[in-house]
Amino acid sequence: MLSLPNQLTKLFIILASWSSTMALAFDRITGSPFASRSEVIATQGMAATSQPIASQVAIDILKKGGSAVDAAIAANAVLALVEPTGCGLGGDLYAIVWDQKSRKLHGLNASGRSPKSLTLTELKKQGLTKIPSFGPLPVSVPGAVDGWFELHKKFGRLPMKDVLAPAIDYARQGFPVSELIAYYWERNARYLKPYPNFKETFMPEGRTPRKGEIFKNPDLAKTLDLIAKKGRDEFYKGGIAKIIARYMKEQDGYLSYDDLANHSSDWVEPVSVEYRGFRLWELPPNGQGIAALQILQILKQFDSKDWSLDDPNYIHTFVEAKKLAFEDRARYYADLDFYKTPVKTLISESYAKRRAKLIDPNRAAKSFKPDPKVLEEGDTIYLSTADRDGNMVSLIQSNYRGMGSGMTPTGLGFILQDRGELFSLNEGEANTYAPGKRPFHTIIPAFITKNNKPFMAYGVMGGATQPQAHVQIMMNMIHFGANLQEAGDFPRILHRGSSQPTGERMDDGGVVSLESGFSAETRRELSKRGHQLQWNVGSFGGYQAIMRDDNGVYYGASESRKDGAAIGY
């Protein structure tokens, strides 16, 4: 017989072994043993965000008679306060809205453009080969606030002052900082604290707030209050715009009052690909949404009936499809006002068939070339909302690299984004820097319909992870039979090192990271096929989702890797 210490050691080894295939949640009596929680189910309304306070605010707005769009704006404004590590008034926004009245999807591109006074020649004159991550140079026009008002004008019900009131109250009274946000806040501060006004706004005690500590942002409360009372023009043409322009000039930046005053968002038509009776919808470039559609189209070209989540054939094919899609992403995705990305061709079945033939089922490719017939790290928030009338919102918003550029205009309570970092400085490319141009964007909302009816509003925040995860979530549900929560809890696949819209080219095949849950046998087989496996923590994204069934019942799911919550009523 084993001694007690040896018995405990053996038990620990067994548990550790089990944890490699399931998330140590095997005490659950229903559902999959690895699921972190059950789905949230309700009939009148639903909100899923990356912070419980924001989800609760969205529900409060719905209960007051607000639309799904009102709830989404209210939640986004609260997240700008409670999760400044992922979003804010200085960033951009994209949304897909299902409008039950018109029974169609509406897409909004609320991303900003580069300063008109900054040229490629000037950037080259400064000896740059890439736009820096921080400081004044990567700052582009913040589009989120205009996005709020565009959404509200088209689909809002409550006055904007009521929609923004909860965020204003929390900014004045304070809120307790949650665990993951406290962690990222401290990490961001290491890089951003040298920039003027950052410490005064986000480190009032001389350090970043710790988990559970109360943080107040009175400057942000004043800014939101002005916007609520005076409208979007206060931000783009009024006193707020003047403060931003003055601050940027003091920092030798190029973003001007005229850049802000001339900003506008665009309503765009979402594009889609069909998969097993379901249709995945994304927004066209300057974002990377169509990469998810390209991956899905390529996967459809393979015999997948025997695939399982842990099947090396599935993982290998998925990674190679991602590499192919990202080659096009690097070369063709850009602001459509400057470059005519061949969207229709790239997401077509015929193009996917050609590209799929390049995949060797037994060997990982080191590189792929673009088809001559055709002409990684970011922080974001994603949220979804739904109301009693069947309207659903898929919304994503970000400052790009964590908290943004570090440029913190005096007295406003927020940081300007550094999205301009994603321009290429190589002349003649689709995404080459130009004045007044939208940079390539990573943030993408997703939506799934079934039989021309709304089925699911969802997204997965996290830089280049997003299109990969959009496809995996869809595969988890439709191919592998997961429910809404399980689809997010399933372990994820992440490939990094692809060619980039900023000019970098893949020549070594990149690296593959697999979350805990994939077997040792599968990892070994992938290594045999030439994949470079690399351990990774924290880069697998953050998922939120709302699904609507045929009876009009909502199901909500929230990411177990984040601080968030899905709430319904």
UniProtKB/TrEMBL annotation:
Signal peptide residue numbers: 1-25
Catalytic activity: glutathione + H2O = L-cysteinylglycine + L-glutamate; an S-substituted glutathione + H2O = an S-substituted L-cysteinylglycine + L-glutamate; an N-terminal (5-L-glutamyl)-[peptide] + an alpha-amino acid = 5-L-glutamyl amino acid + an N-terminal L-alpha-aminoacyl-[peptide]
Entry PTM: Cleaved by autocatalysis into a large and a small subunit.
GO terms assigned for molecular function: glutathione hydrolase activity; leukotriene C4 gamma-glutamyl transferase activity
InterPro entries noted in UniProt: GGT-like_enzyme (IPR052896), GGT_lsub (IPR043138), GGT_peptidase (IPR000101), GGT_ssub_C (IPR043137), Ntn_hydrolases_N (IPR029055)
Keyword set includes Hydrolase: yes
Keyword vocabulary terms for this entry: Acyltransferase, Glutathione biosynthesis, Hydrolase, Signal, Transferase, Zymogen
Biological or metabolic pathway of the protein: Sulfur metabolism; glutathione metabolism
E.C. number: 2.3.2.2, 3.4.19.13
Pfam families referenced in this protein's UniProt entry, alphabetically: G_glu_transpept
UniProt-annotated binding residues for L-glutamate: 463
Active site: 380 (nucleophile)
GO BP field: glutathione biosynthetic process; glutathione catabolic process
Subunit structure, interactors included: This enzyme consists of two polypeptide chains, which are synthesized in precursor form from a single polypeptide.
Similarity annotation: Belongs to the gamma-glutamyltransferase family.
NCBIfam families, per database record: g_glut_trans (TIGR00066)
Protein name from the UniProt record: Glutathione hydrolase proenzyme
Naturally occurring in which organism (per UniProt): Pseudobacteriovorax antillogorgiicola
